[in-house]
Design goal:
By secondary structure, the protein is α/β, with parallel strands linked by helices. 25% of the residues lie in helices and 22% in strands. It contains 6 helices and 12 strands. It has helices spanning 23-34, 48-51, 70-83, 101-108, 204-217, 255-274, and strands at residues 7-11, 39-43, 57-60, 87-88, 131-136, 146-149, 161-165, 172-178, 181-188, 198-199, 223-230, 236-242. The longest helix is centred in the C-terminal third of the chain and has 20 residues, at 255-274. It starts with 6 loop residues before the first strand and ends in a 9-residue tail after the last helix. The relative contact order is 0.17.
Length: 283
């Protein structure tokens, strides 16, 4: 007799080494709790395409940067879209899931984003600074990111990288969402220690800022992280909108907040797996 519990394929790379974070601990915890509601199996991202048809849905979590398995990831996306597989997060994300082009688009549209360009002739649009951040359009987890002096930046702008001013920010703060619902916020009081995070109590203005990007992205089912920095003028600027497999830094949460997040994720997954299948237009 078939199980009445939804079957979930949980995609993760437990061996992935990240600077300052232990991705595997987070996924070990999350899967231990999700098993309370779902029949669940773990697999490496390179195996997801071959295994997913046996499950009601696929959850992509701490699978590491797709640059390390780009071909396998593209095959997974193509196969999932063709089969109408329920993938969580939904594959329609417009942010990091699709590369860094969104930073250019949002910057051009006047959103509160760190000013970003990708052409030498547009460098004049950036604030004057002694240093610039140069990063690949398809980068992730700081891979390929460089900080360069102003005198050398023009030679690096080749259409495949983004250029931003090196902002002297007060701190970085991240806002974590399940579907469109805010869950918690964490910040790094010391800019030189990005992953030494502490709980952060957001203001209504902070949540309005973060919510604009969640609404813009339009993912109905999934987990997103809005990364921002507190600029010298006091306002927030978007650093990144992670909509593929955001690390959640759950080790910085209290037991109560971890439990609340798990409840929200379970409820979201139940809604997602029970909803009618819809065609997805991938980014």
């Amino acid at each position: 007799m078939p199980s009445a519990r939804p079957r979930v394929l949980y995609v993760t790379d437990l061996a992935y080494q990240a600077r300052g974070r232990r991705y595997c601990d987070e996924d070990i915890f999350l899967t231990s709790r999700l098993r309370e509601d779902f029949d669940l199996a773990l697999c490496h991202p390179r195996d997801a395409a071959a295994l997913m048809e046996a499950f009601d849905g696929v959850v992509v979590r701490n699978s590491g940067p797709v640059l390390t398995h780009q071909e396998a990831y593209e095959a997974f996306r193509k196969r999932a879209v063709a089969a109408g597989t329920r993938v969580y997060n939904q594959l329609s994300g417009k942010a990091d899931m699709a590369g860094k082009q969104y930073l250019l688009d949002l910057s051009a549209a006047g959103y509160p984003v760190i000013p970003t360009v990708d052409r030498p002739e547009d460098l004049h649009r950036l604030p004057d600074t002694d240093r610039y951040v140069v990063k690949p359009k398809l980068g992730a987890d700081s891979l390929g990111l460089r900080i360069v002096p102003a005198a050398g930046v023009r030679d690096l702008v080749d259409g495949d990288v983004l250029v931003q001013p090196c902002v002297d920010f007060a701190y970085e703060v991240s806002f974590y969402y399940v579907d469109h619902d805010f869950q918690y916020a964490l910040y790094a009081p010391r800019p030189d220690r990005r992953w030494q995070l502490e709980p952060y109590e957001p203001t209504s203005d902070d949540l309005e800022f973060a919510g604009r990007f969640i609404d813009w992205n339009g993912i109905d089912h999934g987990i997103q992280r809005v990364d921002a920095c507190r600029a010298p003028g006091g306002g927030l600027l978007l650093v990144e909108l992670e909509d593929l497999n955001p690390y959640l830094s759950m080790d910085a949460l209290s037991d109560k907040d971890r439990d609340a997040f798990v409840r929200a994720m379970k409820a979201s997954l139940h809604r997602f797996l029970a909803a009618p299948r819809r065609a997805v237009t991938p980014t």
